[in-house]
Amino acid sequence: MSEQKSSEQKPAEYSGPQRVFSGVQPSGSLHLGNYLGALVKFVAMQDQYPCIFCVVDLHAITVPQDPKLLAAQTREIAAAYLAAGVDPKKAIIFAQSSVLAHAELGWIFNCVARMGWVERMTQFKDKSSGKDAENISVGLFDYPVLQAADILAYKATHVPVGEDQKQHLELSRDIAAKFNRDFNAPGFFPLPEPIYQGPGARIMSLKDGTKKMSKSDPSDASRINLLDTADDIAKKIKRATSDSDLLPSDVKGLAGRAEAANLVGIYAVLNGQSEQDVLNEFGGHGFGKFKPALADLAVAKLGPVADTMRRLMNDPGEVDRVLKSGGERANEIAAPVMDEVRKVIGFWRP
Ligand code: TYM
Fold first, then answer.
1. Which of 41, 155, 178, 212 is catalytic?
2. According to the CATH classification, is domain 3-202+315-345 in 3.40.50.620?
3. CA 333/CA 19 separation, integer angstroms
4. Closest Cα to atom 7 of ligand 1
5. Which CATH code for domain 220-311?
6. Against a cut of 0.70, is the pTM above it?
7. Confidence of residue 10 (pLDDT cuts 50, 70, 90)
8. Taking burial as the number of CB atoms within 10 A of a residue's CB, which of 160, 236, 249, 280 is the most buried?
């Protein structure tokens, strides 16, 4: 995608510590795709690496947000991190706007990234299509450059995300490689690796197995929201689009059956199994048997997450303490990186 191929700089050139960074936007309610594609992975990684998980409020304002609601939305995402099992003793949880390095490095990267690279981002094209182009914020266009700054302000090496972030991660790698090259600083920034293996990486709409589950889908029946009631979850799964065939006994039999593959994938991730394990149990049975089992599993797994989120949101003191201390810890990591960045660029220093 770029004049500068990421492969020109081997990841091995970076010899700093390994570190995980990821973020979720505080805009609209979280759904099962966010949970399985991101949050579940955050929890799995916190025992292996130092982890930094951000609520990306600077990203949220690329489209209008109500100032009266933004702080509560930020707390809600932090509450979801905690409810999913992110442990603030192990991982840093913080709000993006509380660490100034993001905005500063974002600007610097604006001067590193090339227009052509950013113009190719398909998510921007999707988000802006059909809208009055003159009236879209510059921030919405520039969003993936800020995302690179989020990751690289901490020199993060691993980024757990859903598959929809693949292109943004490639851009982050290109920006890192070009910065290192332009400023003759080999290995200064790592080339961050996206982590999106497994069936949770792309959870599809319950109404159309070819579209990703998304908060912007006008149909609420297309997604399971993390704060849905047990009743809603069960109803949405029972009414999810499927087909009239029996489930196959082998994963290969899911090819060309997008809705069936999606539901089996959701079952597998929720139950910590492979898709083949699920088919070993349900292969040869129809959706009349599989959907109620999936509904029970989803309610059993998501119910406690929603209960904890509600408890935390009713008493924001705990979340606020986590975000405040997380912001301080995040700043302690980013500030020295920014000192180095300013030096590498050659800015005036007293
Ligand atoms: P956001 O807030 O749209 O989504 C948060 C996370 O959820 C994942 N996700 C999905 N995974 C599987 N199936 C789906 N249907 C699905 N929908 C969403 C996303 O891939 C993401 O991991 N640009 C990012 C936020 C961000 C970020 C970053 C991420 C800003 N800076 C730095 C990583 C590193 C976004 O809009 O995510």
1. 212
2. yes
3. 11
4. 34
5. 1.10.240.10
6. yes
7. low
8. 160
